[in-house]
């Protein structure tokens, strides 16, 4: 596109002078000149054609002078529109005022066209830079909007209705939350009915952050849910999910997973911990017990792995707490970690009415500890209590 230049001057000779001097650039389509004879005429043309790049304006004109025109142009708030002011050599007071009011540069009469050509080229460089910055800003704003929508979609695919199984209201209470560190996160939780007696429970953390982690999260959740709902044992579920994710993994991404099958009639929990944080159980006497550390590898990284299972029992009035490392590895402004002991202390001290209240207590305690420090990782918690 040609650079559009509006020359504003009450002397008709300047029109012929400019078109003659810049004739080659005009013929090549590099420059496009338009002419007005006073500020009012110039403003009218600018309202009709809002794509002018450079205004070359005389200061001393009838009806509306160049300084008034410059003020009106500033009100348009278009940083890509550059004004070059023209006046007599001895009119330095007005020229200085024009520069103070935001003019890009100036030229003195009689105009040195070689010097004016250099000034125009310099203005074009600034215009190109500003337009590129504006384009990048627009792209960033569009990306921010897309990320916000992606975050809403991600939250929407996670179960958000609690209690999740109304028909089991007399057997279990359950709640969960995921607070991403960025617009979208890599953590996820899930739960689903397997049969009349059992439900599957998932807590997972994808490597990395942002959009790649969010996409891998969605794939991982879908695979684990599809395999788990078939009634496969936890170890077999992790084995099959690992084989499939290894084929889909890009840039060595992986996911740590705690997958459990809970029998709500007996309280038995069969589980497989694929490299994830060991969950806690709040026993009915208030003691907090940590399940054994995992000896399994995460899934999605190495093919051909087998996964060892474990078992535990959840008695009445006992609560299972699953979480990601965004909780225990949260840091404050002094770079101190929240840590496992603080986490266990708040679990033992909390006496909430329900699982949702327990999650609120944990999140509040973590935020009080971290203070003004930015959230460094996704914070995801799932609690389930046997009634």
Q: What is the distance, rounded to the nearest whole angstrom, between the alpha carbons of the first and last residues?
A: 72 Å
Structural class: alpha/beta
Question: Unreliable segments (pLDDT under 50, ≥5 consecutive)?
Answer: none
Question: Please, how many helices?
Answer: 11
Beta-strand segment tally: 15
Mean pLDDT: 91
User: What shape does the CA trace take?
Assistant: elongated
Q: How does this model look, in words?
A:
The structure is a single chain. This protein has 387 residues and is α/β, with parallel strands linked by helices. 40% of the residues lie in helices and 24% in strands. It has eleven helices and 15 strands. Strands 2-1-3-4-5 form a five-stranded parallel beta sheet, with helices on both faces. A five-stranded antiparallel beta sheet has the order 6-15-14-11-12. The mean pLDDT is 91.
Essential attributes:
24% strand; 387 residues; 11 helices; 5-stranded antiparallel beta sheet; elongated
Outline:
This protein is an alpha/beta fold and 387 residues long.
Ordered list of secondary-structure elements with their pairings:
Blueprint: E1 3-8, H1 13-21, H2 23-27, E2 31-36, H3 39-48, E3 54-58, H4 66-75, E4 82-88, H5 92-100, E5 105-109, H6 113-157, E6 172-179, E7 187-193, E8 198-206, H7 210-228, H8 234-248, E9 255-263, E10 268-274, E11 280-282, E12 288-290, E13 310-313, E14 319-323, H9 325-328, H10 339-349, H11 355-370, E15 379-386
Helix pairs in contact: 3-4, 7-8
């Amino acid at each position: 596109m040609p650079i559009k230049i509006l020359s504003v001057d009450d002397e008709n000779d300047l029109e012929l002078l400019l078109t003659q001097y810049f004739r080659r650039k005009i013929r090549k389509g590099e420059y496009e000149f338009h002419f007005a004879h006073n500020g009012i005429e110039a403003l009218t043309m600018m309202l009709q054609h809002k794509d002018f790049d450079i205004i070359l304006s005389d200061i001393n004109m009838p009806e509306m002078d160049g300084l008034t025109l410059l003020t009106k142009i500033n009100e348009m708030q278009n940083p890509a529109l550059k004004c070059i002011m023209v006046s007599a050599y001895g009119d330095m007071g007005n020229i200085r005022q024009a520069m103070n009011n935001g003019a890009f540069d100036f030229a003195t009469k009689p105009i040195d066209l070689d010097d004016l050509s250099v000034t125009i080229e310099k203005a074009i460089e600034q215009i190109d830079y500003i337009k590129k910055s504006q384009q990048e800003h627009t792209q960033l704003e569009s990306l921010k909007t897309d990320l916000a929508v992606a975050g809403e979609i991600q939250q929407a695919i996670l179960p958000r209705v609690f209690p999740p199984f109304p028909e089991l209201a007399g057997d279990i209470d359950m709640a969960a939350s995921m607070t991403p560190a960025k617009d979208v996160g890599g953590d996820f939780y899930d739960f689903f009915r397997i049969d009349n007696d059992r439900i599957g429970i998932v807590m997972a953390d994808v490597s990395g952050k942002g959009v790649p982690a969010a996409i891998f999260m969605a794939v991982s959740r879908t695979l684990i849910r599809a395999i788990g709902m078939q009634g496969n044992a936890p170890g077999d579920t992790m084995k099959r999910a690992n084989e499939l994710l290894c084929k889909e993994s890009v840039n060595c991404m992986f996911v740590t997973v705690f997958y459990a099958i809970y029998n709500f009639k007996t309280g038995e929990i069969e589980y497989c911990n694929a490299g994830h944080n060991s969950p806690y159980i709040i026993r009915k006497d208030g003691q907090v017990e940590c399940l054994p550390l995992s000896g399994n590898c995460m899934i999605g990284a190495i093919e051909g792995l087998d996964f060892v299972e474990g078992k535990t029992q959840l008695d009445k009035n006992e609560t299972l707490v699953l979480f990601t490392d965004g909780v225990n590895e949260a840091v404050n402004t002094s770079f101190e970690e929240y840590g496992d002991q603080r986490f266990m202390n708040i679990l033992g001290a909390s006496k909430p009415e329900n699982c949702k209240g327990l999650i609120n207590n944990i999140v509040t305690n973590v935020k009080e500890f971290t203070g003004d420090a930015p959230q460094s990782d996704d914070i995801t918690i799932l609690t389930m209590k046997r009634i």
